[in-house]
From TrEMBL:
GO terms for cellular component: nucleus. One of its GO terms (biological process) is negative regulation of gene expression. GO terms for molecular function: exonuclease activity; nucleic acid binding. It comes from the Eukaryota. This is Exonuclease domain-containing protein. Residues 92-237, 352-505 form the Exonuclease domain. Its main location: nucleus. It comes from Dreissena polymorpha (Zebra mussel). Belongs to the REXO1/REXO3 family. Keywords: Exonuclease, Hydrolase, Nuclease, Nucleus. It is found in: Nucleus. Pfam families: RNase_T.
Length: 505
């Protein structure tokens, strides 16, 4: 039977429809799936192209035994250096954990991590399975196709590496370690299993989860990678990133240069972004600008009053600023970008999930970042900094950004400083959440692929290029009124996008 949906593998329907979380008892004694709150007999909330199994895990052939560490003979005639037994009979205590993928053969190990008694990483390697991969098992393993691009180590080589680290008297520690050793096809007897150390109150075969044990015994929340793995299914595809105008690396590999493939919906070169009138974008001659905050909508062929002030269509704008402004640099400046760096796999399998929001001002160059806020999955502020734009400010954009001249008094951090801070915080596998996040990332001149866009999570009923505003989504989904006065608040916007994401998990 399929490991996920429990259907027979000879089922005519090749598509696997399953629930990733088990049934749990909810209010009034009703049983609901923990992943989607679906009923007991509901169709799986997740779909996969193939059914999978793990019958090979119980294959009893091809095992290797950890070897005894013997002292060298008095007269060593072997021509090689042999290690004596360790002092004080310390043969090593190691924690081991594996991640696996589904192949045509079944379930095969694809990554192994070993940590010593001081919690230092001793071994952390990917390996290629022996059969063709049919499912990367990303929801649970966190492994994606790109993780294996440059991997050459085979399963046999990885196992030999482990047998060189361990010996027959080494103590191995793990949670449900029988599974890890079975997929590694290693026989070992000195094992400490936290399943037995912290047993379930009702006894075996019930087992407490490692996350539950860590929370109750260590007051530590682990496996935040659970959120990370759940978020992976919401990440935009490469095609979506291109369609939505996210900066993508130049195919000719020119350093720092990117391509924008979208149609730049609503962008007109040489026009003011506020009033949509043409003006001199060199700012040689500056003239005042009046505009309306909200559009005039057409109903049954009749142009309705402006939503911001109620004035009739074509009337003078209800807002006034000292000069026209533009944002041409957002679409035309494709140089000077940096790609988020690659990072080795963290211990908990989570590369981080952060909500990102920026506020910008208008300069002689166009529109530039002036404030950046980053929140974690608990909506705690991780980063919140103002920075100085690289060009002269012509308008503080206070109506939308909430930034005033006095906010920048005493600020010394430059745009480059802020971007470098973010590149230390983020890595290539970090998941970034935001509303129309292409604006923020393109202004930050950062190329990133693992993006969740709430404009896509909560689409407009009529589809793209139309998008619902964050204010509208927050009101309907969270019953929360945001951006109610004084401009946008980057912390508030980031918090709302994170809560909107968590609502979908």
């Amino acid at each position: 039977a399929c490991k996920r949906c429990c259907q027979k593998l000879d089922n005519k329907d090749p598509e696997c429809k399953y629930h990733p979380e088990p049934l749990r008892k909810k209010e009034r004694g009703c049983w609901k799936y923990g992943c989607c709150l679906g009923d007991k007999l509901s169709t799986g909330c997740r779909h996969a192209e193939n059914h999978v199994h793990k019958a090979n895990v119980y294959d009893v052939d091809g095992y290797k035994t950890t070897q005894e560490l013997k002292p060298p003979p008095a007269e060593n005639n072997y021509g090689v250096e042999l290690k004596p037994p360790p002092a004080e009979n310390n043969y090593g205590v190691y924690a081991i954990d594996t991640e696996s993928v589904h192949t045509k053969k079944g379930l095969e190990v694809c990554k192994v991590t070993v940590i010593d008694i001081n919690c230092k990483v001793v071994y952390d390697e990917y390996c290629l399975p022996t059969s063709d991969i049919i499912d990367y098992n990303t929801y649970w393993s966190g492994i994606k196709k790109e993780n294996l691009h440059d991997v050459t180590k085979t399963f046999a080589e990885l196992r030999d590496d482990l047998l060189a680290i361990f010996n027959r008297d080494t103590i191995l520690v793990g949670h449900g370690l029988n599974h890890d050793l079975m997929v590694l096809k290693i026989l070992h007897t000195k094992i400490i299993d936290t399943v037995m150390l912290y047993s379930h109150p009702l006894g075996l075969p019930r087992r407490r989860s490692l996350k539950d044990i860590a929370s109750s015994e260590l007051q530590r929340e682990i496996q935040v990678g659970d959120i990370y793995r759940k978020c992976l299914s919401k990440v935009l595809s490469e095609a979506q990133l291109r369609d939505l105008d996210y900066a993508r690396p130049d195919p000719e590999r020119e350093l720092g240069r990117v391509c924008l493939y979208g149609d730049h919906h609503g962008f007109k070169q040489g026009y003011c972004r506020n009033c949509c009138r043409p003006f001199d974008t060199s700012f040689a001659n500056r003239s005042p600008c009046d505009f309306h905050l909200e559009r005039s909508r057409k109903m049954r062929g009749v142009q309705m009053p402006y939503g911001c002030c109620g004035r009739s269509f074509g009337s003078k704008g209800c807002q006034a600023v000292s000069t026209h402004v533009h944002k041409e640099n957002l679409y035309l400046d494709t140089n000077g970008f940096k790609v988020t760096p690659q990072l080795k796999t963290p211990h908990d399998g989570s590369y981080g999930v952060y909500a990102l929001d920026t506020e910008s001002v208008h300069t002689t160059k166009g529109i530039e970042v002036c404030k950046v806020t980053v929140l974690d999955t608990n909506c705690r502020v991780v980063y919140d900094q103002f920075c100085l734009p690289t060009n002269e400010i012509v308008d503080y954009n206070t109506i939308f950004s909430g930034i005033r001249k006095e906010d920048l008094n005493g600020v010394t951090k430059t745009f480059e400083d802020v971007r470098n801070d973010l590149l230390e915080l983020f890595n290539r596998d970090t998941i970034l959440v935001g509303h129309s996040l292409f604006n923020d990332l393109n202004l930050l001149k950062i190329v990133h692929s693992n993006v969740i866009d709430t404009a896509v999570l909560y689409p407009h009923p009529r589809g793209l290029p139309l998008k619902r505003s964050l204010k509208d989504i927050a009101l309907t989904e969270l019953n929360r009124n945001i951006q109610s006065g004084g401009g946008h608040d980057s912390k508030e916007d980031a918090e709302v996008t994170m809560k909107l994401l968590l609502r979908k998990l």
